[in-house]
Amino acid sequence: MAERDSSAVKIPPLWKELVVDELSKPYFTELTKRVREEYLHEVVFPHPSNIFRAFNYFEPQDTKVVILGQDPYHTPGVAHGLSFSTESSNPIPPSLLNIFKEIELEYGQKINRDPDLTRWAKQGVLLLNASLTVKAGLANSHADYGWHIFTDAVIQALSEKHEHIVFLLWGAFAGKKEAEIDSSKHLILKSVHPSPLSAHRGFFGSNHFKLANDYLKQNGRTEIDWVS
Predict the structure, then answer these.
(1) Can you spell out the DSSP letters for 173-206?
(2) Cα-Cα-Cα-Cα dihedral sign, residues 50, 51, 56, 57
(3) What is the C-alpha to C-alpha distance for residues 92 and 82, in angstroms, rounded to an integer?
(4) Are 128 and 120 in contact (CB under 8 A)?
(5) Considering 5, 62, 71, 214, which one is annotated as catalytic?
(6) Cα(209)–Cα(216) distance, integer angstroms
(7) Is-catalytic flag, 144?
(8) Along the 228 residues of the chain, how does pLDDT read in single tens digits?
């Protein structure tokens, strides 16, 4: 992101190939320019090295589950490039705590509550925010910069070129992304957001993590270890 040339965008080769057409479009050129300027003059999260972190752990064809967030945490020291996730040394964010509680409900046991979800990413879980950057203290502040166009393209390309992926769409915002996904090739699971404001209205008891694994197993794919 330090340069305006899209060739400098630090996305692994096969992910870049998946969305290569996007990188040369005017909106993406403007997006990279605008975000670069903000990093120079404002406080923006996550650290530039973590903007595309969600793509670093597996190739597109190995995507098993997509968990879509809205944008990075906007408080200092929290966002690190994976949706809902933060460093192990940080307190568990409220929505992630409810995610952990739901997994414990489903599996009937205590789980690893480390808030760094890299262990999920390494198994093929794409922890993707719709906006990949945010200004400090201002939630959703980069929503209209072009990130949504880019991440929609990622979702569309995964849907079109691969199969048997589970898309976990929590909350009204994520639910709108259903339109980008071919439900004949993939499993879409929707509920309210795991936020403390809404989790009790249908996130708790949704059984999404077991349903995701059931679908993966039925389609010959390795299940996700949500517990360890």
Answers:
(1) HHHGGGGGS-TTTSEEEEE--SSTTTGGGTTTT-
(2) positive
(3) 14
(4) no
(5) 71
(6) 11
(7) no
(8) 433 444 457 899 999 999 999 999 999 999 999 999 999 999 999 999 999 999 999 999 999 999 999 999 999 999 999 999 999 999 999 999 999 999 999 999 999 999 999 999 999 999 999 999 999 999 999 999 999 999 999 999 999 999 999 999 999 989 999 999 999 999 999 999 999 999 999 999 999 999 999 999 999 999 999 999
